[in-house]
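User: Can you model how MF3 sits in this protein?
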Amino acid sequence: MWRSPDPQNVTLKTPAEQDGMRLAGRLTADVLDMIGAHVVAGATTDDLNRIAHDYIVGVQEAVPAPLNYKGFPKSICTSVNHVVCHGIPGEKRLKAGDIVNVDVTVIKDGWHGDSSRMFLVGQPSVQAKRLVEVCHAAMWRGIELVRPGTRLGDLGHAIQTFVEAQGYSVVREYCGHGIGRVFHEDPQVLHYGDPGTGLELREGMTFTIEPMVNAGRRHVKLLPDGWTVVTKDHSLSAQWEHTVLVTADGCEVLTLGREDRFRLGLEAPAAAAGAAG
Ligand code: MF3
Ligand code: CO
Ligand code: CO
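Assistant: Here's the modeled complex, given as structure tokens:
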């Protein structure tokens, strides 16, 4: 990858480098597809961490990027209910009604894929489900704008106005990010902002869109463990994340799961089911 002449240190990935990102993105999605069946009442978030870690290392022969990243002690992040992001897996058991974000970052051949999804344990409240759905739709509002010429402020504005129109708030302290050989690189991708401002997207950029949406006020606080971010008012929080590549005329979502690939017609269900052709 080469350094672009932009004022920020934004890297543009060559076609070969884009293939590296595609594989890392696919493996990341595979972990999330695999972990869903394990997000059930009675499981601990440490169980999820161990299952994901063993799959990434043992099956994918890849590296879980969070482990030891700036001292983070686990291989994935698990953020339950009012935890906004960067929850540390532990002994706490999931219970019916919980909403859980699982955030996976896989390194394969030096390239990073980063994605997170919300999982519902049992039957969460109508309000919790709506929060999860609005956050998901907000991420897609952003993704749909990704193409050369769009500016980052356009993305942030689309996400913010959609979320606020639903009566929810967008977290400001954490944002999406460029990604490649480095986990978090330029640019910063804010989930709020003003149209017509910020960096202009160019073909070959790869970055994440990962809005955090609170049912209550947007303010957050960091717990004494130095990682766990919670809502200040203890309201529920949701987050979804994809890694995207800017293409000549739009974008490619590098971390689509199996269901999304079927839904978007990118893959026939039989292929992933392993049926003979
Ligand atoms: N995966 C998170 C992100 O989306 C970052 C986690 S950093 C960790 O950027 F150290 F907490 F794992
Ligand atoms: Co990220
Ligand atoms: Co992430």
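A couple of observations from the model: The chain has one domain: 12-267. The mean pLDDT is 95.
User: Helpful, thanks.
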